[in-house]
Design a protein that fits this description.
binds zinc ion, 350 residues
């Protein structure tokens, strides 16, 4: 079941509804806490963050991040060579489409749209699924107890920002190991976004009447599209905030953050009873979406990113991910237990 066929909803209204339903579901009986969205429509700094203050869970978001994702989604579907089997792709004339936001009507305005209606619908879907991923990452910080942990350490005002303001301001002498803690929590927030979005994709896939599935030539293409979204989000982050292998970083490199998804997808597919044969069809579809997304991203932004190549050949990647996974198992899972709302990743293994 998905709730996004609500074309009549405004842009922010739609985002909020989408995230609020997950929040309310997880909060269940807890009526004390409320979720608040705070948008920065004019800021130039690409940034998203979350924090918890006096029972208020706050997601802060720079509107530009979401608009960039929409711009990319619409640009992709207006290329005749992108998913040529969907709709009448030959009629498309390749264009760079930009999305802007009109505050007074709460709508996204586009400089163009795919000519084919089906492709337009799917461009919109691709756009909001990218936004959903970004917003769910922030919600993950809240529901998995990260923001409350930060509050308990006196670091609430900084929250989880894309740019670790706290570090820039050099306020963080509070405890050592901050960067590793943060990298670990960022990985956990990514894991939350991955599992929530991927479960939803599976639900769509198995729903014969799903609105978006019916716009695809083959239901399995939903995994391809998911792979496009997943890659675009991290390529865009890399473009705005390249992250290097450095122990002082509060994030894993974007290529690691991208690659981590695959382990989660595989586990979810297994938990949902998919056979290995089926899994071996689905995962390459996600990967295929990622490859196409990279190709187009590099073309549009004049970059030369290759996360897939890095994921296979980069030895640092394994060492980095192992360090964070170990820290998660040995330390952070325990520290988060009293704050978390949702069950933590692998928590049942304890
Ligand atoms: Zn984060």
């Amino acid at each position: 079941m998905n709730t996004y066929n609500d074309y009549h909803l405004g842009f922010k209204e739609h985002n909020q509804k989408m995230i609020e339903s997950t929040y309310k579901n997880e909060m269940k009986g807890n009526n004390k806490r409320t979720l608040v969205f705070s948008y920065d429509d004019d800021g130039d700094c690409v940034n998203a963050g979350s924090r918890t203050e006096d029972n208020k869970d706050i997601i802060e978001i720079n509107t530009k991040v979401l608009l960039e994702i929409y711009s990319m989604a619409y640009t992709l579907f207006s290329q005749p060579v992108f998913l040529p089997n969907i709709g009448n792709a030959n009629n498309e004339s390749p264009a760079l489409i930009r999305a802007t936001y009109n505050k007074s009507i709460d709508k996204i305005l586009l400089t163009g749209e795919p000519k084919d209606e089906k492709r337009g619908v799917l461009a919109r879907y691709l756009g909001f699924s990218g936004c959903q991923f970004i917003l769910l990452h922030e919600l993950g910080h809240i529901l998995n107890g990260h923001t409350e942990l930060m509050t308990s350490l006196g670091l609430a005002e900084n929250g989880f920002n894309m740019i670790a303001k706290a570090i820039l301001d050099q306020k963080i002498d509070c405890y050592t190991g901050y960067s590793l803690d943060r990298r670990t929590l960022e990985m956990d927030a990514d894991a939350f976004a991955y599992s929530t979005t991927f479960q939803e994709i599976l639900a769509m896939f198995s729903d014969k009447d799903d609105f978006y599935i019916n716009h695809l030539s083959n239901p399995i293409d939903i995994f391809f599209l998911y792979g496009v979204m997943h890659m675009l989000v991290f390529l865009y982050l890399e473009y705005e905030f390249p992250i290097a292998y450095d122990k002082k970083n509060t994030y894993l490199p974007n290529s690691c953050r991208y690659a981590l998804g695959f382990g989660i997808f595989e586990k979810i597919l297994q938990d949902n009873g998919f056979t290995q044969g089926y899994i071996n069809i689905i995962l390459p579809r996600i990967l295929g979406g990622g490859k196409i997304a990279s190709k187009f991203f590099n073309m549009i932004y004049h970059t030369d990113y290759n996360f897939l190549e890095m994921a296979v050949h980069d030895n640092n990647l394994k060492e980095y991910v192992d360090e964070v996974n170990t820290h998660w198992e040995k330390e952070m899972k325990r520290r988060l237990k009293k704050y978390r709302i949702t069950k933590l990743f692998n928590e049942e293994d304890n």
